[in-house]
Amino acid sequence: MSVPHPPGSTAPAPGSTLPPGSTVRIDAAVAEAQSRGRAPSITVGIVRGGRLLHVASAGAHPAPHPDLQYRIGSITKTLTATLVLQLRDAGRLDLDDPLRRHLPDVPFDRITLRQLLGHAAGLQREPDTDGWWERTTGTDIAGLLATLHPGKIAFAAHRTYHYSNLAYGLLGAALTRITGTGWAKLVATRILEPLGMTRTTYHPAAPYAPGYVVHPWHGTLREEPRTDTGAMAPAGQLWSTIADLSRWAAFVADPDPAVLCPDTMAQMCLPVAIDDPDRWTGGHGLGPELYRVGDRVFSGHGGSMPGYVALLAVHRRTGTGVVAFANSYGLANGTIRQLGLRILSDVLDAEPAGPPPWRPGAAPPPEIAAVCGRWWWMGREFNLAWDADVAQLVLTQTGPTPAAPSRFAAESPDRWRGRSGAQHGEILAVRRDRTGTPTALDIATFVFTRDPDDLG
Fold first, then answer.
1. How many folded domains does the chain comprise?
2. What does the angle CA 327 – CA 329 – CA 335 come to, to the nearest 5 degrees?
3. Which one of 61, 152, 239, 256 is CB 3.0 to 4.6 Å from 40, fit for a cystine?
4. Looking at the structure, do residues 30 and 83 belong to the same domain, yes or no?
5. Is the previous residue joined to 62 through a cis bond, with omega within 30 degrees of 0?
6. Which among 229, 201, 99 has a CA at the least distance from the CA of 152?
7. Residues 152 and 145 sit within 8 Å (Cβ to Cβ)
8. How far apart are alpha carbons 97 and 112 in whole angstroms?
């Protein structure tokens, strides 16, 4: 069904709906997954441009709707990671800080916050508890730290990718120690409240879907406990709805700078580790999971808790995403992931995002206008243009197979820093003659000239 946009957002612009053929295919895919997976209920939402455009649901235990809560499991980790990066941006920590700088009582000397965020620390997956931590009442931070010992390190850091729930329990403990505020309050005041995510909560808040295990032989439902996981909450405690989690998908695609710098989210979505080195279809950034499907890479996270599975995945370049829930542990996490990524790919294939409209620009200052135009390097032609909207120089190679343009932002007169493309991070220095006329561009010792015969 088509649904209203999330409360607080503007009305959808003309054309901001899915083609009828896409909605039919989405509805059919969700119905098939519910039937084949024997899920009591399943619901999937499509997000584009910050708006929830379509929700497909199946099952009646209970009947899903956009305000029905499900447990989101490890999608919680993306919010925990955002808290860490907020503090990094505020100068209160460094990602390469050893964990012991903030939790002196842990028995690990060299593990860093960055390694924990990207599951590259070699830490074992679960804490030592009396039973599976996801199905038992959790301990406090002191109790969690008391269970640690050097043997919890399974691999040397960066030796291999090894997913660790324990890592995020420890990151939550570090956040509490650094700020003096508990994780639950941090996530509420620093993320949920600013983004208007009023239906994302620590404990379930009616209406919510009970979580089940489906009996393999006779199809009866066994309800799972709704535990308070205590110090492990930063790894998987939260509950949310399709409408609310669509706000988080929109944030991952295009962050509100008042909550997180967009450049920081871009950094979070770069790979720290690849989780399948044979095929390179998945990896992990500084919090988000990364999924490669064909030529596209999606950012987000899967989630599971006893009785629940979930997915959030976003194609950041087009602002298109999917959120999905089911209230059955029998519908394996891999199944909900396959369903969500297949639906997201179908939406992008059916209605690819078009290019932004061209509009006239403002004239650059004379000293910049003189730099624009045609340049040559090793017989190759390049054009340097001015983008007045963002005050950047844009270098584009001409020819039948041009590469992605490189963008440069001014650091000082005639000194520009690469912000994207092949020259990201490099310096473009403008050389001028005695009259002030630009004669060359020096980009990381590669010299571009006005004359194709002049090799610098």
1. 2
2. 90
3. 61
4. yes
5. yes
6. 99
7. no
8. 5
Which residue, 409, 361, 370, is CA-closest to 389? 361
Please report whether residue 437 resides in a domain.
yes
pLDDT digits (tens, 9 = 90+) for 270-327: 999 999 989 999 999 999 999 999 999 999 999 999 999 999 999 999 999 999 999 9
Parallel/antiparallel/unpaired status of strands 51-59 and 406-412: unpaired
CA gap 431, 439 in Å, rounded: 6
Q: Answer yes or no: are the C-beta atoms of 443 and 384 closer than 8 Å.
A: no
Which burial class, exposed, middle or buried, applies to 52 when counting CB atoms under 10 A from its CB (0-12, 13-18, 19+)? buried
Which residue in 84, 104, 95, 203 sits closest to 145, CA to CA? 104
Cis check for the bond before 225: say yes or no (omega within 30 of 0): no
- Token pair of 102 as six digits: 């903030």
**The model's pTM:** 0.87
Q: ω before 19 within 30° of 0 (cis)?
A: no
For residues 40 and 201, give the distance between their C-alpha atoms in angstroms, rounded to a whole number: 22
Q: Show the domain range for 70.
A: 20-350
Eight-class DSSP state of 203? S
Does a structural domain hold residue 177?
yes
Question: If residue 240 lies in a helix (H) or strand (E), which one and from where to where?
Answer: strand 239-240
Contacts of 315 (CB under 8 A, 6+ apart): 253, 296, 297, 298, 321, 344, 348
Structure tokens at 452: 């194709």
Of the residues 295, 315, 350, the one at which a domain ends: 350
